């Protein structure tokens, strides 16, 4: 931590924030600057120091979606023709949201007068969210230091400052500022220089890129809506983006209109699902990853030989459900070594693996199967996909050097969860959907942060986290390369015809 300097225009704002600060907190100063940009500029001259700077207080909304009591964390501060970025805003906003506050992130404008009426509308048209009268000069004077600007909204276009109810809104805003104080302390504790170790490979694999491209091509060729059974890949950002563009995600095919264009997800489906699609006359485009299709073919082959097919995988995962469906009732899910003892011994056994497992976990279970059934047959090649293997190896490499590891991925992403498990053998590790999911306490004292992403997570999310960390202090980025992936999969003919 480099220390914390809190600036507020009014004594009432400063006292409210101070009351929320942890008792005995050292290295923290609270300064009352006075109202308006001139007083703020004069106060800025004497600030000095190297502390992280947080400008806090009340603010006025210009964006109509903001309501009194909302907390705006500035993504940037606009003042006198210049823009001062606040890159750590998503980290701070995520922490405030977890504290139960209604948070928004957006641009803050510093004006030299009270803004109202038509001027609010003009500012809103520029993309601004709120306005104040002090942050700009303070941001300009503290360039190079971690900067945060937090404003609790008191007045809005629908509830101007000079209107009934302002006093009550101000009292409520003062209470909210008290809740902001402890979060600012955690934000400051997370500041400082650090190294970010990037695992390579990370993020999208060839199968995920192919599946997303299939939906994009279908939307372009046929127009929305294009229906997708289940999530095309297990990532909420990917699903949200495709939804905005016209993809409709459904759990089951009975939600799809007869004859509609329908995409099967990258995780694959069972023959029963394919039959249901035929009965409804759906125009199907199959986005099943070719490596999953390979496991399906092995399942059919082993089942045709009269073998019990033991699938090493996780219950409820679409890939496991699809693969078991290919066995015609001859398959059984094996999740742990203990499950091996319950396998029936009345016929020959074969085993397969869900492609997104951790290698050591799957290998242990496979060894237990071979130990009980010496004649058991397995896949000709490891079922765990190359991308899963490579990402686990690269995470293993960075975890050994890191104080904490962050894995970007959604909670239903099996391969992302396995990366967290791999990292935790060496150091604390956490799964996050994006930078807003990072708890500031994880970063306090962490001078080396390992960073990777599951095969279904967009690479842009990794870039966003690096940018947010730079808002906490200087960041040196180093890459640990385990492999370079050159695999590409062609699109299915249904997507091209």
How many strands appear in the DSSP assignment? 20
Low-confidence blocks of residues = none
For the sheet with most strands, the description reads: 5 strands, mixed, barrel
Q: Can you give the helix content as a percent range?
A: 25-40%
Fraction of residues in β-strands:
15-25%
CATH architecture designation of the largest domain: 3-Layer(aba) Sandwich
Rg estimate, integer Å: 27 Å
**Fourth CATH level, the homologous superfamily of the largest domain:** Nucleoside phosphorylase domain
Q: Total helix count? A: 18
Verbal overview:
One of its GO terms (molecular function) is metal ion binding. It comes from Nonomuraea jiangxiensis. Belongs to the IspH family. This is 4-hydroxy-3-methylbut-2-enyl diphosphate reductase. With 497 residues, the protein is of the alpha/beta class. It has four domains: 186 residues, Rossmann fold (3-Layer(aba) Sandwich), CATH 3.40.50.1580; 104 residues, Cobalt-precorrin-4 Transmethylase, domain 1 (3-Layer(aba) Sandwich); 93 residues, Rossmann fold; 75 residues, Cobalt-precorrin-4 Transmethylase, domain 1. The chain has 18 helices and 20 strands. The strands form four sheets. The chain has a five-stranded mixed beta barrel, surrounded by five helices. Strands 18-17-19-9-20 form a five-stranded parallel sheet, sandwiched between helices. Helix 2 packs parallel to helix 5. The longest helix is centred in the middle third of the chain and has 24 residues. The protein is elongated, with a radius of gyration of 27 Å. The model has no long low-confidence stretch (mean pLDDT 94).
């Amino acid at each position: 931590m480099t220390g914390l300097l809190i600036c507020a225009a009014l004594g009432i704002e400063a006292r409210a924030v101070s009351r929320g600060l942890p008792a005995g907190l050292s290295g923290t100063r609270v300064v009352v600057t006075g109202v308006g940009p001139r007083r703020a500029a004069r106060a800025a001259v004497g600030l000095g120091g190297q502390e992280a700077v947080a400008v806090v207080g009340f603010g006025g909304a210009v964006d109509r979606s903001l309501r009194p009591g909302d907390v705006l964390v500035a993504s940037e501060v606009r003042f006198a023709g210049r823009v001062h970025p606040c890159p750590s805003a998503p980290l701070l906003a995520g922490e405030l949201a977890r504290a139960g506050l209604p948070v928004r992130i957006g641009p803050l404008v510093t004006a030299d007068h009270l803004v109202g009426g038509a001027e609010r509308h003009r500012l809103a048209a520029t993309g601004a969210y709120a306005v104040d009268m002090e942050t700009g000069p303070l941001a300009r004077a503290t360039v190079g230091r971690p900067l945060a600007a937090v404003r609790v909204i008191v007045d809005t276009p629908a509830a101007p400052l000079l209107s009934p109810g302002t006093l009550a809104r101000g009292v409520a805003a003062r209470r909210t500022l008290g809740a902001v104080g402890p979060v600012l302390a955690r934000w400051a504790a997370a500041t400082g220089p650090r190294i970010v170790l990037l695992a390579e490979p990370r993020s999208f694999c060839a199968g995920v890129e192919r599946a997303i491209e299939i939906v994009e091509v279908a939307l372009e060729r046929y127009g929305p809506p294009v229906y997708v059974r289940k999530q095309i890949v297990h990532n909420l950002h990917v699903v949200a983006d495709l939804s905005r563009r016209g993809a409709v995600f459904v759990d089951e095919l009975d939600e799809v209109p007869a004859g509609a264009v329908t995409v099967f997800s990258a995780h694959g489906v069972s023959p029963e699902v394919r039959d249901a699609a035929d009965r409804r006359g759906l125009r199907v485009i199959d986005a099943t990853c070719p490596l999953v299709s390979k496991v399906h073919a092995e399942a059919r082959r082993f089942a045709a030989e009269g073998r019990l097919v033991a699938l090493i995988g996780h219950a409820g995962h679409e890939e496991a459900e699809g693969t078991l469906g290919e066995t015609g009732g001859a398959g059984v899910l094996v999740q742990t070594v203990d499950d091996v003892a319950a396998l029936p011994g009345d016929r020959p056994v074969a085993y397969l693996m869900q492609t997104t497992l951790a290698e050591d976990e799957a290998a242990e279970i496979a060894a237990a199967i071979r130990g009980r059934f010496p004649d058991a047959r397995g896949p000709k090649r490891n079922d765990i996909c190359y991308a899963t293997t490579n990402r686990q190896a690269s995470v293993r490499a960075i975890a050994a050097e890191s104080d904490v590891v962050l894995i970007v991925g959604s909670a239903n992403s099996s391969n992302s969860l396995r990366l967290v498990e791999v990292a935790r053998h060496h150091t604390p590790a956490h799964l996050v959907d994006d930078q807003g999911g990072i708890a500031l306490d994880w970063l306090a004292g962490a001078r080396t942060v390992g960073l990777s992403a599951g095969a279904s997570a967009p690479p842009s999310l990794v870039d966003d986290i690096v940018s947010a960390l730079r808002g906490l202090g200087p960041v040196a980025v180093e890459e640990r390369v385990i492999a370079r992936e050159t695999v590409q999969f062609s699109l299915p003919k249904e997507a091209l015809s």
